[in-house]
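ok here's Cupin type-2 domain-containing protein:
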Amino acid sequence: MENHLEVASADAVVAPFPVIPEWQEAVNIEGVKLFMHSFVDAMAGAPLRTSRFTIRPGCGTLEDKHAVREIWFISAGTVDVFYGDAWHHVGAGQAVFFESWNPHFARNSGDVEAQIFSVWWE
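and the structure:
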């Protein structure tokens, strides 16, 4: 069986690894940080976009609604998400889907920073 974890030798030719760069976008929301992913080069035409954001305990996002569909994957913490005229309690390992033009927002209802990965498409 091959060992795929071996270290490449110094003279090995390695193809560029397709790392998607991330940059922090300034948001004026207390306790919220937003990190956008830059789809460049071969990924520029991808049919989706992604970002991640964090919410400190006791803080929340502003209401958002847009023309795209979106999924949030919660990887840490717990959040209460307002969608469809109701609050929904969502924890790490769960995901939520938002249909186009439906208002939604979240607040961190736990005691650790919430980490959320977002994917959206038309």
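+1. The chain has a mean pLDDT of 91.
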